[in-house]
Amino acid sequence: MSSAPPTEALSTEALLATGQANTLDELQAVRTRYLGKSGLITRELGALGKLPAEERRARGAALNLLRAGVEAALRERGETLTRATLAARLAAEATDVSLPGLDLPVGGPHLISRILGDLEDIYARLGYTVVEGHEVEDDQHNFDALNIPWYHPARDLWDTFWLEDGRLLRTHTSPMQVRYMASHPPPLKIIVPGKVYRYEATDATHESMFHQLEGLVVGEHVSMADLKGTIAEMARGLFGPASRVRFQPSYYPFTEPGADFSVWWENPRGESRWLELGGCGMVHPNVFRAVDDLREERGLERVYEGKTGFAFGLGPERIAMLKYGIPDIRYFYANDLRVLEQFRGELE
Ligand code: PHE
Question: Is 147 a pocket residue for ligand 1 (Cβ < 6 Å)?
Answer without folding.
Answer: no
